[in-house]
Amino acid sequence: MTMLDIQDLRATAGDAEILKGISLTINAGEVHAVMGPNGSGKSTLAQVLAGHPSYTVTGGSVTFMGNDLLDMEPEERARAGLFLAFQYPVEIPGVTNAYFLRAAYNEIRKARGEEEVDPMDFLDVLEAKLKIVEWGPEIMSRAVNAGFSGGEKKRNEILQLALLEPRLAVLDETDSGLDIDALRIVAGGVNKLRSTGRSFIVVTHYQRMLNYIVPDHVHVLAGGRIVKSGDKALAHELEARGYEWVEALHGVPA
Amino acid sequence: MSSSVESLVNREYKYGFVTDIESDLAPKGLNEDIVRLISAKKGEPEWLLDWRLQAYRNWTRMAEPHNWPNISYEPVNYQDLRYYAAPKTTTPLGSLDDVDPKLLETYTKLGIPLSEQKLLAGVAVDAIFDSVSVGTTYKAKLAEQGIIFCSFGEAVREHPELVRQYLGSVVPAGDNFFAALNAAVFSDGSFVYIPKGVKCPMELSTYFRINQAETGQFERTLIVADEGAGVSYLEGCTAPKRDANQLHAAVVELVALDDASIKYSTVQNWYAGDADGKGGILNFVTKRGKCAGTRSKISWTQVETGSAITWKYPSVILQGDDSVGEFYSVAVVNNRQQADTGTKMIHVGRNTRSTIVSKGISAGRGQNSYRGLVKVLPRAANARNYTQCDSMLIGNRCGAHTFPYIDVQNASSSTEHEASTSKIGEDQIFYLKQRGLNTENAISMIVNGFCKEVFKELPMEFAVEAQKLLGVSLEGSVG
Ligand SMILES: Nc1ncnc2c1ncn2[C@@H]1O[C@H](COP(=O)(O)OP(=O)(O)O)[C@@H](O)[C@H]1O
Ligand SMILES: [Mg+2]
Q1: Interface pTM, i.e. ipTM
Q2: A2-249 placed in CATH 3.40.640.10
Q3: Closest Cα of chain B to A240: distance in Å?
């Protein structure tokens, strides 16, 4: 089954065209890695899929589970099962993580036609999810991402992923800024969440994370285009030869 | 901001209805005869009439403040207002049994049922409708412990010695233009006396309702906590929607003797005017507490969401040694609302401590100013003040301003001031939307988080109410 079908997607921010015609098809259960040098448009692709208002889609189409994704509000996309783990998770001072997570959880449940859960029942739900990211409950009484270390922020993203159980998760540089232990935990969390019905787009600059989360397909983004696709061997080749290699191949200035 | 944010619909002000009831009205205008008329209507003793007349004479020599507050409005035509309006059918005795059913219905509609069976357990209410109190609940129960909770008018009749002792002792009749006006024409209000050593077993509250057009509301509240006494007091208010501005110039005086504590919480939701700034209440209020005794404590918490213009500075005079003053404030302006609000902490006694936490939220074309004075007098050794003053901007047509004044005359004291201004971020809203929340709920969550330190000071039911109110006042706010 096709989960996501991107055809010739173009997007601008201000006057600049950043995505210059991207096509990508992802089936249910697949993990696609999107790699590329800094500034190639990886985060833009992730944000455009999630519907960030800073970007204007100027061409192409995106179909998510048979529906026109670009026609949906960001919260509708989330409720339909699209999840973005942010490269830079946002701080919400004064709002406890527990309160925020329950609000999000209940929104997603409502969208699925399920009943909302009260704070007590939610604690039970959380307990299991916290295990996935090897966390204790202390993190719940802290304000959302406020004063979190880089690693804690990323872990919090994966906790949300575990909680909201999306159909498609886009992980934007979830590995960046993580030490090896945190990387192991975060990647381990993602692996526990892999299933035949769930797809992933793993955006990363380095091959490192792909040793843990082994992708079915690897795409190289450069200058707003996918310049090369392959299997996991491509990631290793990139690691060995550097991005200049693909950029040179495709005439993209470094 | 994104169009989805802009397109939020403004919810109607749901308390904007008018009760159709016949009123006893004073003729328009203000002069000594009107002052005498008000005093006579209330059957007041001579000393009180004299006090009013003195205040009136002071007032005629004062000018409406227009230069220093960061607000702009057309000068009020004081001769075009009525200074007394009372529903004709009320018995002025504060007995609920005889209250006109139309009035009871009004309060039920406002969510303040006055029949004791239906009341929130643990909250006693004094309901003020235009110029008079229409009833006070749980009076008898409180009286068992010697607590006096009644309308101001009743206190003047029943407890003149207490009223005379404390009236004007914190806010003198000539304190400022609006306080002088209030002293001359004040209509009704609430009076509370908590005797020595008694901790009031329930929250006391006053609910103010303006109904009559072209009247001002000038209530006066006086709360005295005797030695070792404690009380928590709540104040709420609403008014009908009208095209013309209406004046509300209240005075609140608090007195805390040795070891006494008073906690005063306000959720102010007067009609704010329409989106273009037409109509709304001019909320010009003087609130001040005196920590007269050692180890006494006065704490103000306010959530100001309504009114076209808010001008108020709930303050504490820290006279007793080791006394404590607190001010926690959330002020929200949207559309064309203006607020100039803050506090004054006057440290007189030794080891006095004060805390100021102010959260200003500006949206639409609203203008929000924090104005605060921390004054440490020479005798106030080891005085401490902590001030935190945060502003949040929603959209880019609004404004936030801070005017902190610090005047320290004792070298052993310390004052600490922290301030921040932030803009509610597109990225914060987007983050929450990506997790399934709609824009409205996202903004509400962010703003409530911002106000958390203040909300946690409110009594439980009030905190819930305040959170809801904040959501409503900010709807359609972004642009
Ligand atoms: N909101 C924006 N406004 C203007 N330029 C942007 C914006 N977002 C991204 N860009 C530009 O688009 C290019 C791609 O950025 P990004 O998608 O963040 O790349 P990556 O994630 O691959 O490092 C960069 O040149 C960046 O400066
Ligand atoms: Mg990026």
Answers
A1: 0.96
A2: no
A3: 36
